[in-house]
Design goal:
By secondary structure, this protein is an alpha/beta fold. The chain has helices at residues 35-39, 62-65, 82-93, 123-138, 168-186, 219-235, 254-270, 295-309, 341-355; strands at residues 2-14, 20-22, 44-47, 97-102, 151-154, 191-197, 245-250, 277-283, 315-318, 357-363, 368-374, 379-385, 391-398, 405-410, 415-418, 427-430, 434-440. It contains nine helices and 17 strands.
């Protein structure tokens, strides 16, 4: 029997925006599905790979926003903001803030021909172009907006040719030039960071590795070597660069992500960067066509949300919320345009987020995850069971009336639906691969 403990009288912190997404569900050129973001309380949508290959030729990417790199970056007529404006308007109207990636969309067929993956030919001009993009969305420049978009990420996964056909040291230089320029222009009005690292998979081999002796021909080991190159570069006296957040990616299962987050935090602290935000802005443990539409995926993803709420991370962005046929598009059915079970897991986490104050919770089963929150009156407990079998669970609850509860489930049978179930002698049987939300009434 598993044991869940929750004390609603013990506030442990704030519920963080773990349930952000990447790639909002644009359909063609419309925002008709953005209401789903509002209904699930999705706080952030990271704008990367938007619109398909090459950003659809229209969206977000710097070459789409500023097509002629040799043109005058101060002249508004040289920019093409219209399509990206439409997306950002839709996000803001639905209470979802953009997390803006400054760079390019991945070129998956770069070995056939590369188009935009070479480093900018003038790093300083590239930074000035990014400055004008920010002024458009935050200061009204070029018939723009005053949205005060906060997060601006410099490039994405510059560890290899699909995203960056230069040396990693060249990327570090681009980061230095751009971060310094943008912070000089905007100061604390924006947050600047990067580098959207491919991640820390190689720690499975040795969790204490520090980059020394890693094989650069092994991609997973190269990613970690680059991590240390970046940290050494931006913290050096010669190249010291501003950084408000460090972003990284993982396509592992929940227990793997937990270890990777701990590893990342350990070395950020070691390099004197303990005050910056740690952001996992691409993650997805369920990327197969067979399982992305199942209750199994919902439980796996909610487990990540609940586990990372208790980590040093400050934000996450699930990859991704497109309404498409990609193995990664795990929120919406592209044929019906209706949510998969996974979407409702994000909605359930939002039940915690809306209440703001996190309360003490604990589980003695490593595959049964829990989180709780209160606003002083309302109380909610959210669980995810990723066990392959039904789990009889004892619930030890303090500070909430367990005699009047509503229990909702998400799995292949229940789509975020009330179950009519009650606690029996303080116990609840949770089906396999199931998310549970318990609302306490007073």
């Amino acid at each position: 029997m598993a044991k869940i403990t929750a004390d609603f009288t013990k506030i442990t912190g704030r519920i963080k925006p773990m349930h952000g997404v990447g790639q909002p569900p644009i359909t063609g050129l419309t925002n008709e599905m953005f209401h789903y973001l509002k209904e699930a309380g999705i706080p952030y949508a990271r704008l990367h790979d938007v619109g398909g290959m090459f950003g659809g030729g229209c969206f977000v990417d710097i070459p789409n926003l500023f097509p002629d790199f040799d043109a005058d970056e101060k002249d508004p007529s040289n920019y093409a903001f219209e399509f990206t404006d439409k997306i950002i308007e839709g996000l803001m109207e639905n209470g979802c803030e953009p997390f803006f990636r400054l760079g390019i969309t991945i070129e998956n067929y770069v070995n056939v021909r590369a188009y935009r993956v070479d480093p900018p030919k003038d790093f300083h001009k590239w930074a000035r172009i990014c400055e004008q993009v920010i002024r458009h969305y935050n200061e009204g420049w070029a018939n723009g907006y005053n949205y005060n978009i906060e997060y601006w990420e410099i490039w994405n996964e510059p560890e290899g040719k699909p995203m960056w056909n230069g040396t990693f040291e060249e990327y570090c230089r681009l980061y230095e030039v751009s971060s310094k320029h943008l912070k000089e222009c905007f100061g604390d009005k924006i947050k600047v960071g990067g580098y959207a690292s491919c991640g820390f998979y190689a720690i499975d081999k040795d969790p204490e590795i520090t980059g020394i002796g890693l094989d650069p021909t092994n991609s997973n080991e190269k990613y970690i070597k680059n991590f240390f190159t970046f940290l050494e570069y931006i913290t050096s006296e010669e190249h010291k660069s501003p950084i408000d957040f460090f972003s990284w990616h993982s396509y592992g299962a929940v227990h793997r992500i937990i270890k990777q987050a701990e590893y990342c935090h350990k070395f950020l602290v070691k390099y004197g960067l303990s005050g910056i935000e740690e952001i996992l802005n691409e993650w997805n443990p369920c990327h197969t066509m067979e399982n992305k539409c199942t209750g199994w995926a919902a439980a796996q993803n909610l487990a990540v949300l609940l586990a990372m709420q208790k980590s040093t991370l400050t934000m996450m962005n699930y990859y991704d919320a497109r309404c498409g046929s990609s193995i990664f598009s795990g929120m919406f059915n592209p044929d019906t345009k209706k949510p998969y079970p996974n979407y409702y897991g994000f909605m359930s986490f939002n039940s915690l987020y809306k209440l703001k104050d996190e309360v003490y919770t604990d589980s003695d089963d490593k595959n049964l995850f829990v989180g709780g929150a209160t606003d002083g009156k309302k109380k909610v407990l959210v669980l995810s069971n990723i066990n392959a079998a039904a789990t009889e669970t004892e619930l030890c609850i303090s500070g909430a009336d367990t005699s009047d509860v509503e229990i909702l489930m998400i799995n292949d049978e229940y789509k975020y639906s009330p179950t009519g179930k009650e606690f029996v002698d303080g116990k609840l049987v949770i089906p396999p691969h199931t998310c549970v939300e318990i609302k306490f009434y007073e």
